[in-house]
Structure formats: C-alpha cells, structure tokens
Design goal:
The structure is a homodimer of 319-residue chains.
Chain A: E1 3-7, E2 16-20, E3 28-37, H1 40-48, E4 58-66, E5 78-82, E6 91-95, E7 99-101, H2 108-112, H3 115-128, E8 136-139, H4 145-158, E9 161-166, H5 171-177, E10 181-184, H6 190-197, E11 202-207, H7 211-220, E12 221-229, E13 237-238, E14 241-242, H8 244-248, E15 252-255, H9 263-283, E16 290-295, H10 299-307, E17 314-318
Parallel strand pairs in A: 8-9, 8-11, 9-10, 11-12, 12-15, 16-17
Antiparallel strand pairs in A: 1-2, 3-4, 3-6, 3-17, 4-5, 5-7
Chain lengths: 319, 319
Amino acid sequence: MQAITKRSITGEGNGIIQVPQPIPKTGELLIEIAASGVNRLDLNRVAAGTADLILGVEVAGVVLENHSTDPHFVPGTRVAGIVDAGGYAQQVCLPAKQALLIPESMTYVDAAAIPENYLTAYQALIWLANLQVGETVLVHAGASGVGLAAIQLAKTLKRAKVIATASPRKHAACYAAGADLVINYQTTDFATAVHDYDAHGADVILDFIGASYFQQNLTCAAVDGRHILISTLGGNQVEHFDLRLIADKRLSLIGTLLSPRSNAYKAALTQAFAAATTRLFTTGQLKPVIDSYFDFANTKAALEYMAANRNIGKIILTH
Amino acid sequence: MQAITKRSITGEGNGIIQVPQPIPKTGELLIEIAASGVNRLDLNRVAAGTADLILGVEVAGVVLENHSTDPHFVPGTRVAGIVDAGGYAQQVCLPAKQALLIPESMTYVDAAAIPENYLTAYQALIWLANLQVGETVLVHAGASGVGLAAIQLAKTLKRAKVIATASPRKHAACYAAGADLVINYQTTDFATAVHDYDAHGADVILDFIGASYFQQNLTCAAVDGRHILISTLGGNQVEHFDLRLIADKRLSLIGTLLSPRSNAYKAALTQAFAAATTRLFTTGQLKPVIDSYFDFANTKAALEYMAANRNIGKIILTH
C-alpha cells in the first residue's frame, strides 16, 4: 500500500506526516486533493483534542478512482465535496453522491470554498427556513464564509431583501455579495436597525452568535419568522426567555449543524444544491469569496488566522 | 332583514339577545348552526373583554345559502368549519373553502367537535412537525380536545408511538384514543418516563404548557426533534435557557396558533385535512371525544366548566 502525506496540527507536530493511503469503499471516489477549505469545525476538533483524526471537511480535487456506479466520475474528473474528516491531506475518499462537478471555468481554490459554506447556507435558507421570494433575511456574521454565501444565495435564488451584521472593515464585502443593508453591530442596536429598514421585520434570521443576540433576534423577527441557529459564538446561556416571543409571532427557532448529519442527508442536500446552483456558479452570479491561501504545510497558521476572526470570506489550504 | 338570535356571556347579560342576521359575502356559505364547539380562545376573548364580538370559532350546521361557486354546498348540505367569530349563534357565515362536508353517519355534535381540535392537531403534527411513520410523539394535556385529536391522528395517519401526559382520572381516555403510554405528570418526571419508554426520545412534542415544562421537553426531545408550542397554560417565563439544548440536538421550537392565521391558510389546511381524514371519520377510525353538551342558553356554565379544566374531550353547545 502506498503511503500518502497527512498534514495536521494535531498528532506528531505541525508539519507533514505519512499515513496509509485511504481505501475507497463501494460508492466512493478516491480524490487527489488540490485545495481544502478551513472551517471552524477544524478549530473545534483541535480544541477537543481528537488527535487521531485528520482535519479538513471539504475538498476540491481530481478523481483518481471511481468506486461508484455513477458514470460521471471517470478518473480525471474535477470534483468538490464535504467529507467527514481527512481533507488536510493528499488523498481522501468522497462518497460519489456528495460530489459536486466543478465547472470548467472554476479554479480548485474557488471550488474548495463552496461545499461547507454554500451547503450550510443553502440548507439553512432553503430547506430549513423555506425562504420565499422577496422575503427579508438577516444574516449575522455577514462576512464569514457562510455569511457571504448566504447573502449571495438569498439574493440570487429568492431576490430577498438582505440585511447583514458585520464589523465596519467587513461591510464592503457584504455589500459586494449583494447585501441591501449592513449594520455595524458594535455601535448599533441591530433589532432597531432592522425595523427601521423594514417595519415588517426579518422573515429569516441566520444566527451564528446565539445568546448575546437572542433577545434582539426574537424582537426583530417578523410574524411567522424562522430563526436558524447554526452556531453560538456569542455564548449558549440565555438568562431569561419569554415564550410569548415565540408564541405570539409564531416563530420557529431551529438548531442545525451540517457536519454530524448522515451521508444520506448530505447526499440529498448536495444533489438539491447542485440542481439549483450549478448554472449560477458557471455564469458567475454565484462566486465564492476567498480571503487568503495557506500552503498545506502552514495549516497551523491558517487555523490561528481563522481563530482570530480576521478573515473576510474563505481561508483555503492549497499547494 | 330578519333578526337572528345571538347568545353570548359578554354584552347584554348571559342570556339570549337579538342581533342582525349575518350577510354572506361572495365565496361564503350562510349556515344555520346546529352545534358549536367551546374553545379556550372563547375564554381568552371573555377575559379580554371583547364585548362586541359574538363568541364561538367552530360550528356544525346546514347550508341555507351558497354564495360560492362550489356546487357541493347546495342548501341543505351539512357542513362544519372554523370561523373567526360568531359561532355562539343561530346563523353564521362560513367561507366555503373552510367548510368540511359532514359524513352521513355523523351527528352535528360530533361534527362541531372536529374543526378547531383536529385542524390544530393536524397542522401541528403534519404541517409543522412533519411527523414521519413510526416516530415517537409526546402529547401534553393528552385528554384535552386537541390532545385527544392529536393522539388519534398520530396513531391513525402515521402509526406513531404516542406518549401522553394527563392527570390520573383522564388516563383511560388517552389510552382509549390510542396512546401507548400515559404519564401522571403530578407524580412522575415525564422527561425520565419518556426516556425509559424510548431511549431515543420524543421526535415530536405537542406542548400546551410552556415554561413549566420547557426544560423537561428539551431534555426528552430526540435529535432532530420538533417541539410545537401551541399554548402556554403553564406560564411564559423561562428563567434559564441553554441554547446548546437546541443546537446540539438540532431541535426546532415552533410557536403556532391557528385562529389568527389568514383565511387562505385555514382554507388550505382544511382542504389538506379533509383529503387525509374524511374516510377515517366515516369508518370511525377517527372519532371525536365529547365530554359534555350545554344548551346555547347556558353558555356561561359551559365556559366556566372549561375554565375549571374538568373536561375530558370536547364541550359542545347545542339545542
């Protein structure tokens, strides 16, 4: 068996180590990785000390072997997709049903920026929130990878009115992605700003913050609003919760996280997402925002950069 | 214009008063009411002092005039349905699209017990919670009108495992409706009892209680569980809320109330409900549970009885 190169800041130091080549199962593709996205989940795994796990949950690369029955994925095909682990490496196995074909005009770096961010945003906006044409969407952390993907998808797929929150140096990126209004959450009560912009309130809220925004989110939600809780970077503990805020406006508070879901779920989501968006990526109406590239050997620096919350858009590992 | 009889405990005393005959608009049916259901919404309206409103939000009766284009509703047709107000009366206008045809074998009393309870339960279980075949459902206030309807629907439509909470004297009614386990919430921690019965937890929770059950509900919810908040009889104020309970299990907390929704929504719900259930009411697989009848002249006694929370199943006003 051929040894391949593993790169991770966990395990034996921060450099490059050798591990066995992954062995594809039936239904999987063996991929030679060209670029890999950096995600908060990787930071969480480092913090949790899962030392035997190769980090990395999304990749773009080329098919080496097709162990599925899908004839699209002949060796040489360029694909991207989410994997459970193992993305910070030379090779990984990707279930064929979770593979996205990369358009000819797209680079591997751009393709590696798509799966986790856009699938998360698509799932939240379309599957969970059932976003309707012309509704108002509030996207917190608007300049994060998922945030920028959500702004683009809400605009492009549903012609939504999009309001984002971000720190001032990230406003331009949110506007460039299509936001109609970007709020400086450091100086402005965003609930008031949402109502000033649209008295109706926010039909859909994408929330990565949690406790520190909770009361304001419920306050600015519209009747029949859907509040999608993707992450709780601003804490978990809500000190007081008036259920009338949920009952009177018929709100839905929906917790979600893509990574732990089943492969069947991820496959169905990937298929629905590809059907809705492939053309839009080809024409450039959807375009991943890349913040920066790091070499695979500098994984640790890439993770520290993400932890510092300095990025606008996606951080990519590549060669 | 012919005067008709209005009965309400608000307004001019507790007896019977004369009011103008309702005038049907295009799309509506004029109904001669045979029976009317008593609902908590009526109590709320009394408490709110809406003195000029005729109480009553669901009726069964016979079509006097058909002002819609639907040929099913010729005069003489027996129908039931939810109305915005005016059910405690001789006549009321009912949008044809919100009218359910009463099966030949069914009495008006049974028919008047269907709309509010079964439509609420159907909406919660099927539309909002998207209940799947074989899932586990926890129904609080299992012997209430909505509770018994929910137990029957979860069993009949989705072969769910149904757990109910109720006080001991109401357990037999819950079992008769199809519950697999009924918990005495006065002596038993229901969250523990749910997990003892099904370690997986409750996929769907129908909650009329709110704050006093909130923590336990989130504790016994299954991964991907849907917690439908219909009412908050046990209070609104939750003192501490750990968002990880929502995030880690990907829960959905969904507030709902049928009455304030649009006629278009109620019409669509009524049509979906009729398509799914008419045959089951005809065969007796679904059967409303009637607690008691009151004469229309004893409206006040009927409402006091409901306020005392003594009923098992539906309270009906009739002649």
